[in-house]
Amino acid sequence: MSREILKNTPIAKNLTDEEMNILLRVAQKRTYWIGETIIEEDSVGRDVFILISGKVRVETAIPGEHEDKQILYTILPGEVFGEFSFIDGTPRSATIISDEECEVIILSYTEFKTMAKEHTHLALTLMENIAKMLTERIRNINLEFRNSVIWGR
To answer: Which of 44, 62, 116, 144 could hold 123 in an S-S bridge, CB 3.0 to 4.6 Å?
Structure first.
């Protein structure tokens, strides 16, 4: 089941069957329960997560007297999170909490680097796919910002 979902995700685009097998061998599968924190904002970690089933929310702390949380968006099966820190090693930019029981595939940066030495095409394809996902998100944010300026929303 997770293989079929993973195969249809943007991060796995253009991977051969052999490369998919290698990725599944080095990655871990984990289940999170409802309300469980998967990533804590400002924590250190370089793993990238692929949501296989369930739903998680992305939230961030709003500085101030009450330290409120703002939900930014919801991540659905097939989507990836944790990719910023995976690439640049900076602390996590948001908190990720499971809204339902969910299953994720986790690729650690350490395992990725080890795998990349032997499977350079796989590593390059994964990084290219992550870069494409990030640029798409930035373009969408730019479009939303532009529309809010134009339409005053």
So the answer is: 116
Cα 40 to chain centroid, rounded: 14
| Separation CA 115–CA 130 (nearest Å) | 17
Which pLDDT tens digit goes with each residue over 38-86? Answer: 999 999 999 999 999 999 999 998 877 667 888 888 999 988 999 999 9
Question: Where do the domains of the chain lie?
Answer: 2-151
Superfamily (CATH) of domain 2-151 = Jelly Rolls (2.60.120.10)
End-to-end CA, the chain = 41
Q: Which residue type sits at 92?
A: R
Torsion of CA 83, 133, 2, 29, to 10 degrees: 0
